[in-house]
Automatic annotation (TrEMBL):
PROSITE patterns: 4FE4S_FER_2. Keywords: FAD, Flavoprotein, Oxidoreductase. It comes from the Archaea. The keyword DNA-binding does not apply. Gene3D superfamilies: FAD/NAD(P)-binding domain, Glucose Oxidase, domain 3. Residues 128-151 form the 4Fe-4S ferredoxin-type domain. This is Glucose-methanol-choline oxidoreductase. The keyword Nucleotide-binding does not apply. The lineage of its organism: Archaea, Methanobacteriati, Methanobacteriota, Methanomada group, Methanobacteria. It comes from Methanobacterium formicicum (strain DSM 3637 / PP1). One of its GO terms (molecular function) is flavin adenine dinucleotide binding. PANTHER family: LONG-CHAIN-ALCOHOL OXIDASE. Belongs to the GMC oxidoreductase family. Pfam families: GMC_oxred_C, GMC_oxred_N, NAD_binding_8.
Amino acid sequence: MEKVLVVGSGAGGATVAKDLAEKGMDVTIFEKGNWINAAKAYQCYDNMDVGVELLKATCVGGTTLVTAGNAVRTCQKEFKNIGINIDHELLEVERELNVNTLPDSHIGEGTRNIVEAASNLGLKMEKMPKFIDPLKCIPCGQCFLGCPRHAKWSALSYLEEAENSGVKILSNTSVEKIITKNGVVQGVKTDEKEYYSDMVVLSAGAIETPRILVRSGLNAGEQLFVDTFITVGGILKDIKFNKEVSTNSLWKGIDFILTPHYTSTTAEMLKTTGYGANDILGMMVMIKDDRSGMVTETGVVKENTAHDVGLLTEGSAVAGAILETAGVDTSTIVSTPARGAHPGGTAAIGEVVDTNLETEINGLYVADASVFPSSPGSPPVLTIMALAKRLAKYLSEN
């Protein structure tokens, strides 16, 4: 039985581990973080100030525990252009996660106001596809903190299936480097011991994966993107938008998207108005940012380029017009500082890995957003999982 070590338990790691175990392989997952109840996932945020604030979580299941449950297809055309077709795998993921839009009963007043206002401006917003079970979901605005009712899919579901198929999960275990011999993978070295295997799949995310690669003698970590975003918001009394399902509709611009979004940062910025969280209506502007960042052993740098600033400005203007049409007091509209939600690009296909996601080290693969050729500018979970499924098929067949 072939032995595979998977580093990281988020969208990519959980998927490849589950699928390989179902094919009869001996799989062990290494996870730097702890096991935690999904409802308390907010305790695992370990955000970084890298020029923009980079939002991420370290725990078993990774950042999937604190996503908004958004299920959009991203970079499908870009991958096809470099010879990678994931159409079938995307369909598989969508079936397994029961991806669908939520019923009208789960669309709050704030989101309805935004959709209607956008329509009045000639902008047609669509419902956001979600991996959320409407029968379990009682809208509460907690999606980004960890779902208290377990209505939202997270990698914990796949990890449970993986364990049932014999996968071993070692939490609180950091992988330091890859063990190699004559250019062939032999296993991994953690902070405590060495583990040996036939193959290794790195799915530690676009910050930690390149660090492990560099410590193992490969070049990685350059051309980081983060899907830079800001939230534009203002006062609309008693709207109670903060209690709604997060980011429940979508408008696609050129290289940016707009979606209804509440953040406590806006509430903090507007606290001097005398209004509170129940009185804020907001929209997220997320852009396809340039691959202008870098990950090193000791730090991360990602600053906005002139192109990034231009996209954020354009998106903010559209969001502001929609909010004004929706009834927001224009004298109260503010914009949060730039943040990043989806780091990637630091071990890109054609630069660090080939089209089978294999590095120069024979038997060492990468299955996370590190391999993306460009910023998706929208949630990448489905695409990461589709790539991981494609990799699992390749490894089991070869």
